[in-house]
Design a protein that fits this description.
With 207 residues, the chain is α/β, with parallel strands linked by helices. The chain has 9 helices and 7 strands. The strands form 2 sheets. The protein has a 5-stranded parallel sheet with strand order 2-3-1-4-7, with helices on both faces. A two-stranded antiparallel ribbon has the order 5-6. Helix 2 crosses helix 3. The chain binds BIS(adenosine)-5'-pentaphosphate.
């Protein structure tokens, strides 16, 4: 299955992608994770991306498209994948249309107030990429691998507000884009646990 997970920052795309990738045995392709790894490793792409990500702006289309184009050619993509955070602009979606035929786009919806609450409390493990909310952590150590969890720089309050504005302006138009193609499946995440959202995702995908 070739899937796109769409939705505002903090809506739960990454959390759900990690669950579904395990069940379907297909990779999660998170452009955010790939870019953060490039920044940590100080690659040329990472050096370009850093300023944009720290400000909560989108990395230029050509940089992200090149990353995805290369990644989709890897062997583990043969049986499908979950694109998490790509495409994020109409030009990115138009290029993707020329490369692959997507089976479905899941749109995770969540009001801004809840997004701000989630992102201000999010902690991530820099080693194994697991994601937590600070209220559910007993210590600063990752329950999955023991590494010290950190707060993403772009989860600082002012940057979150900018990311929400960027989402509305540049990414939300993709909802109409995929609706028109008949590919859109909407999941309203407000008030749902991770497991409840997962059940909805499977329901809208018919799996
Ligand atoms: P990226 O890493 O993709 O960030 P994002 O889309 O802003 O998404 P997030 O990772 O913040 O949130 P999420 O929806 O995955 O939520 P999560 O599951 O973590 O992108 C970062 C940056 O990279 C961008 O700003 C941009 O600069 C650049 N970039 C990336 N892709 C790009 C592209 N295509 N083009 C250009 N630039 C690009 O959950 C959030 C929190 O909520 C967690 O703490 C989690 O534990 C908790 N949670 C999840 N589900 C629930 C639930 N049901 N109930 C309670 N808590 C929950």
């Amino acid at each position: 299955m070739k899937l796109i997970f769409l939705g505002p920052p903090g809506a739960g795309k990454g959390t759900q992608a990690q669950k579904l990738m395990t069940e379907l045995n297909i990779p999660q392709i998170s452009t955010g994770d790939i870019l953060r790894k490039a920044i940590r490793e100080e690659t040329p792409t990472g050096l370009v991306a850093k300023g944009y990500i720290d400000r909560g702006e989108l990395v230029p289309d050509e940089v992200v498209i090149a990353i995805v184009r290369d990644r989709l050619q890897e062997k583990d993509c043969e049986n499908g994948y979950i694109l998490d955070g790509f495409p994020r602009t109409v030009p990115q979606a138009e290029v993707l249309d020329t490369i692959v035929s997507i089976d479905a786009v899941v749109d995770f919806e969540l009001p801004n107030e809840e997004i701000i609450n989630r992102l201000s409390g999010r902690r991530v493990c820099p080693k194994c990429n697991s994601t937590y909310h600070v209220s559910r952590l007993e210590s600063e150590d990752c329950p999955a691998c023991g590494e010290k969890v950190i707060q993403r720089k772009d989860d600082m309050p002012e940057t979150v507000l900018n990311r929400l504005q960027v989402y509305e302006k540049q990414t939300a138009p993709l909802i109409a884009y995929y609706k028109e193609k008949g590919a859109l499946r909407v999941v309203d995440c407000l008030g749902l646990t991770v497991e409840d959202v997962y059940a909805e995702v499977k329901k809208v995908l018919g799996i």
